[in-house]
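Figure-free illustration: sequence to structure, shown twice.
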Amino acid sequence: MTLRTRLLAGTHPYDGSPLGGHWAYTQHGIQGDSLLVFEGPCEVKIEALADLEDAQAGAFIYSQRMLHFVLELFGPSLEEAVSRQWLMAATAQDELNKRLKKARVERDGNDLWVGKRKLSVSIGAPTGVSVKVHLGINVIGAGAPVPAIGLKDLGLTTRPVALALMERFADDHARMRGARTKVRLYP
C-alpha cells in the first residue's frame, strides 16, 4: 500500500491527539497509511503523554515551534512501528548532517541531540486500528523544559527539511514494502 504524504499549510498545534487512530482521515481526509507533516507549537501535558515512563516521572513536552511528522500504518505491530520510529530518527540524523556545516546531530535510540541539547521528541504507539509514530524536531529550542536546540538555531530552514524528510520517509516505506515481494520461500 502506498504511503500518502502531505505537508500541511499553515501552523497546527500538537497536543498528542494526532496519535489517535484515523487522525489523518478524520482531520485531513487522508485514508490509509499516511505521513502528515506540519509545523506548529507543541504542548503535551502529562495526562496526554503516550510514554508512561515520562508520565510517571512528571515530564511533559513543550516547544514554541516544532516540525511534526505523524505516521500512521495499518497492519504492522507495535514492534514494527518502533523500528520505523528509530529508522525515521536515523534518516533525520543523516539528512540534517548533510545540511549542517559545523554542528553534528547525534542519535541515541529515537532521540536526536546536538551536543547536550535535545533536538527531537519521538514516540511509537498503538491505536485500536493502527500504529502511530510522531517525530517532532524543534524549530526553536528556547523555552523547552530541557536543554534544547532547534533547526533555526542551526541555521536551517524548515520547509526544505520537511520536504526532504517526507520524501525520504515515503521512499523508505515503499522500498521496505517492496523488499517483502522480491524474496522466495525456501523449503
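We now fold a second protein in the same way, so the two outputs can be compared directly.
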Amino acid sequence: MSNPASQKPPAPLMLKVGYGLWAVSLIWWFLYYAQYHGAFGLFGLKRYRAAEEAAIGLARAWLERIGLVPDADRPAGELPYGAQRRLEIARAMCTDPRLLCLDEPAAGLNPRESAALNALLVSIREREGIGVLLIEHDMSVVMQISDHVVVLDYGRKIAEGPPAEVRQDPAVIRAYLGTDEGEAPNA
C-alpha cells in the first residue's frame, strides 16, 4: 500500500471542482495537503504556519461536521463504508470547490447511511452554496437532494425537470420499472 503522503492531492485551484478520492488516512492526507500548499515550511515562515493552521482547522471542522473526529488517526480503509463515503465528500469540500461532482455516493449504503449522506449533501448545497452534480441510481437520494434531475436510459436523455415531475414521467417509469407502453406500473 502506498504512503498517503506520497499521493498528490487534486488540483482544486485550477478547476474549482471537488472530486472524491478513496482510502487514505484522514489526518495524514490533510497534513500533507497543508504542507503541499506551504512549501516553505522548513524555514518556519509565518505564511506557511498560517496556511498549515488554516488547512488543519478546515480539516478538523469537516471531521467534526461528519462526526469523524474520534477516528482522525485511523486509516480510512478501517472506517465503516458509510463513514468512508462521508469522509470522501469532506475531503473534496476541503478543496473549496464551486461544484461537487459525485459518482454514485450512495452505492452500497444501508438506509441509515443513505439518510446521513442525504442530510450532508443537502447541507452542503444549502449552507455552503455549492452546486452538486450527482450520478446516482438510488432514487431516494436523487429525489431528496436534487432540485433538477436529468434521466438517462442507455446514454439517451429521456426526461429532465424538477424531481416530482420527472418521477411521474411515463418514459422514466417505463425505463426504470420495466413497464410496456400501454401497461400501468405497479406501485
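Summary for the second example: The domain at 15-146 is CATH 3.40.50.300 (Rossmann fold).
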